Amino acid sequence: MNVTFALATARRILTQLRHDRRTVAMLVLVPSLLLILLRFVFNTEMAFSAAAPALLAVFPFAIMFIVTSITTLRERTSATLERLMTMPIGKFDLLLGYAIAFGLVAVLQVAVATAISLTWLGLEIDGSVLLLLLIAMLDALLGTALGLFVSAFARTEFQAVQFMPLIVMPQILLCGLFAPRETMTPVLEWLSNVMPLSYAVEALESVTRSNELGGTFARDLVIVAGSGVLALILGAATLRRRTP
After folding, report:
1. Among 97, 111, 98, which residue's Cα sits nearest to residue 69?
2. Helices marked H in the chain — which ranges?
3. How far is it, in rounded angstroms, from Cα 185 to Cα 9?
4. Tens of pLDDT along 199-219?
5. What local confidence, expressed as pLDDT, does residue 148 receive?
6. Cβ atoms of residues 191 and 170 within 8 Å
7. CB 142 within 8 Å of CB 200
8. Phi, psi at residue 241, to the nearest 5°?
């Protein structure tokens, strides 16, 4: 791993994003706008506080997944990756650079959404705000890593979008957002247990409900972070220079 190459890639991506204000606005503001909409759908702070923690994991995860997968695919189809890989840069260095750049955007995205939720929208939590931010950021980074991974298997932007219902939607449905995981059928509970978003939601709910966090919370953090690292490694292993 070459940190210099990774940072140079991150700087290039951030420079491109700086000139694409619409994409930046979507990345930073859409989760907050969705949470604002949800607050007025529930119309009570109590109901919003019950649902919002899970959605602080779901919204950044889904948005970072789709944006990252399409952006990476576009760079491959435009032969940008092919030109970059003629240089002495490793595949993992390249994906790490993408992860750093989009990770910084994810930090801003989650910080804005959390700040709005805790102030204007009346989200109430019993645990640490910093831990809440940490988990939500890890989940956004997980979405980024998975987006980088699946982009290797898509040939067009339309195919990249099709990974959304395949990778993201099952995790949203089975993460415990709509029904407790322990009440699901054995097969669905097993599927939920192997999906990293379930542990991100569980960790966020633990933080919002209590100041006392034990081994389960630490396990959830390790699983979410480890899943992101694993997705980056698999993405580097499957990365192609260009789409045929």
Report:
1. 98
2. 3-18, 21-42, 45-77, 80-84, 91-118, 129-150, 157-163, 169-174, 186-193, 196-209, 215-238
3. 45
4. 988 888 888 777 777 788 889
5. 83
6. yes
7. yes
8. -65, -40
In this prediction, the residues of the chain whose per-residue pLDDT falls under 50 are none
Core vs surface per residue 152-180: b (16+ CB within 10 A) or e: bebeeeeebeebeeebbeebbbbbbbeee
- Which of these, 176, 110, 113, 179, lies nearest to 143 by C-alpha position? 110
Q: Which two tokens stand for residue 45?
A: 């702070």
Domain boundaries, the chain: 3-238
Chain-centre distance of CA 15, in angstroms? 21
Dist. CA 67–CA 50, nearest whole Å: 28
Q: What angle do CA 83, 88, 94 make, to 5 degrees?
A: 70
Q: What was the pLDDT predicted at 189?
A: 93
pLDDT the model gives residue 242: 54
Mean pLDDT of the chain, nearest integer? 83
What is the spatial distance between Cα 130 and Cα 207, in angstroms, rounded to a whole number? 10
Report how far residue 203's alpha carbon sits from residue 78's, in angstroms, rounded to the nearest whole number: 39
- Write down the pTM of the prediction: 0.84
For 148-172, the pLDDT digits (tens) are 888 877 777 777 888 888 889 999 9
Radius of gyration of the chain (CA): 18
